[in-house]
Amino acid sequence: MAACFGDHRNPLFVEHAIEELVAQRIHGLALGYEDLNDHDFLRCDPLLAVAAGKTDPLAQERSEDQQGKALASPSTLNRLELGNEKQSRCHKITPQPEALEDCLLQLAVRGLPKHTREVVLDLDAMGHLVYGLQEGRHFNAYYDDSCYLPLYVVCGDVLLWAQLRTAEHGAAEGVVAALQKIVPAVRKRCQKARILVRGDSGFEGEELMAWCESQPHVYYCLGLSKNSRLLDRLDATLAEARAAQCLCGGRVRRFAEFAYQTLTSWSRSRRVIGKAEVTSQGANPRFVVTNLPARGFKGDRDRQRFQPDRLYEEGYCARGEMENILKQQTLDLRADRLSTHSLESNQLRLWLASLAYLLVERLRARTLGGTALAAATVGTIREKLFKVAAAVRVSVRRVYVQLSSAYPLRELFELCQRRLMALVPDS
Prior knowledge:
Layout: E1 5-7, H1 18-30, H2 39-42, H3 46-51, H4 74-81, E2 93-95, H5 97-109, E3 118-125, E4 128-129, E5 138-140, E6 145-148, E7 151-155, E8 158-163, H6 175-189, E9 194-199, H7 206-214, E10 218-224, H8 228-233, H9 235-248, E11 252-260, E12 270-279, E13 282-283, E14 286-290, H10 308-316, H11 322-332, H12 343-367, H13 378-386, E15 390-394, E16 399-403, H14 410-422
Parallel strand pairs: 3-9, 9-10
Antiparallel strand pairs: 1-2, 3-7, 4-6, 5-6, 7-8, 10-14, 11-12, 12-13, 12-14, 15-16
Helix pairs in contact: 1-12, 5-12
């Protein structure tokens, strides 16, 4: 990531390289310190200094007033984040947005299995409230406040895309442009995989569907907003569900499939799945539009998985798992702490939080498989493995970390460490 920054500082006065600044910031986020002023005391942490690449973790070689402070101060890190806000003699670290965006995508794609046959890309837009009169603020009626509306793209547990957007547009704004970068990157990693794009009704526009239909082996399964014509087509199925609910009570679901085309906005007729659900609270109809074949793909073991009921319940509804990734972004990593004035600087903060998530996700995927933390959130992993009391002793050549023998997860910690040591670089 450090290669995505331009450094125009005078080397004679530089004590903290870009690599060290980036490592300090990302490790701090992973450890739960989202605010820059937290680094006022973190800069004295010898272990964080070692993680950031410092060879003098106690800062004994620095000037007298800086001894014991091996890492950068909050003001130095602030200059890193605000480098692209202005062009002046005081802003000499310049992030390169396109390179950072590509860096996140390339690092994330490495986490996908090479030989997978199907890659599911989940789309979502999540409102992040602003902190004041910030650039790009806009009132959003759904969130009932001024906010940003970033676009996230997730594949399984891997976060591929985090694009900060203003909130005056809908959820589908810029999705096709994002997929035009994401799909080739996924194809390069998983050459034989078909790609399925999944999203709620905010992404149902003609532009996205037509683009997917124009690409080889790219499919979509999107929520579809209700209207009177769709409800008329589902009337008979809904009546059947009501009759069944009157007899047995509880919740009753029935599904219908039909071809549908809007009066003006769609260029062609498309396959629509209607869910007629009736509960004690009343009717709850829902619709999904897709170009997945009803008879499945040739060579699939299960040719029935795209039948209406299974496509909706097992395919479309599974996108809810993406919400767990976004919760980790906001609750564990505070990716919504977009409190600088500039839109570009807030985008950089979003990327930093996303890379911190990838760091912990790779740790979980490569070292915690088969353990009690195999599916743990970032917050749980931090509490169990990162925020552990230890005595740190620094000698001339080594840094010793002494853990308590009463540490309850000692065996898991040792297993994780052994697996880390055995890793080879990703190809």
